[in-house]
Structures are given as C-alpha cells and as structure tokens.
C-alpha cells in the first residue's frame, strides 16, 4: 500500500463474509475500510485482493442483527446485490464504521456536485438571466 492509501484508512481488521456458493459458508477475510472503498482480502498479508467494493457502489448497510457473539449485517449495492457479513460483538462495529464512511462519502459527493453546479451557473451569467426572464 502506498503512503497515500495508509493515511486514508478508517478501519482495518477481520470480518467474515458469507460465500456466494450453494453451501454459504462464512469465510474470514481481512478488510481495510478507506474513505472511498472497502477492500476485502483473502489472506492476512493482504497479498491477494479478492474484492474492492467502492463506496459509490454501495446503496446502504441493512439488516443489522445481534445474536450471541456476532453482529450480522448486509451491504446492499446500487445494483441491488446483497453481500452478507458478520463480525464479533459490539467492540468490532464494522457495520457502524462502514455506515459512517458511506455517509461521509455521500456528503462529500453532494458538496462537490453543489459546487460544480454553482460554478457552472456563475460561469454563464447570461443563461441565468435568460431563465429569470422566463420565470413567472
């Protein structure tokens, strides 16, 4: 990982992901949450990156349930795919960390979109005046 990536790390540790196959076993993964992605590695040395889940492709964190020693939650992607995870107890609140990172990402995107829209309106004052002239 580069120095830039290390400075953006919000949470790092182990998380269990339910496999997509028919038997749906829980597999322990090493995960790194940054301000833009959730990186899921198959091994603890982070040599084999199995999946990079960008926050812009996550719709929400859903179905949080606590049972015994585990907290279960589902990440729903923008294409409505559901990915199931579980982590140990409340000390390891991956669901909360992912939710907060997602909210922060969406807020930054909304501010960026607003500034872009404002810059576009300020760059063409003639367009704004024409719209105002047509307004009732």
Automatic annotation (TrEMBL):
<protein>
    <recommendedName>
        <fullName>Pleckstrin homology-like domain family A member 2</fullName>
    </recommendedName>
</protein>
<comment type="function">
    <text>Plays a role in regulating placenta growth. May act via its PH domain that competes with other PH domain-containing proteins, thereby preventing their binding to membrane lipids.</text>
</comment>
<feature type="domain" description="PH">
    <location>
        <begin position="8"/>
        <end position="103"/>
    </location>
</feature>
<dbReference type="InterPro" id="IPR001849">
    <property type="entry name" value="PH_domain"/>
</dbReference>
<dbReference type="Pfam" id="PF00169">
    <property type="entry name" value="PH"/>
</dbReference>
<dbReference type="GO" id="GO:0005737">
    <property type="term" value="C:cytoplasm"/>
</dbReference>
<dbReference type="GO" id="GO:0016020">
    <property type="term" value="C:membrane"/>
</dbReference>
<keyword id="KW-0963">Cytoplasm</keyword>
<dbReference type="InterPro" id="IPR042832">
    <property type="entry name" value="PHLA1/2/3"/>
</dbReference>
<comment type="similarity">
    <text>Belongs to the PHLDA2 family.</text>
</comment>
<keyword id="KW-0472">Membrane</keyword>
<dbReference type="InterPro" id="IPR011993">
    <property type="entry name" value="PH-like_dom_sf"/>
</dbReference>
<feature type="region of interest" description="Disordered">
    <location>
        <begin position="117"/>
        <end position="136"/>
    </location>
</feature>
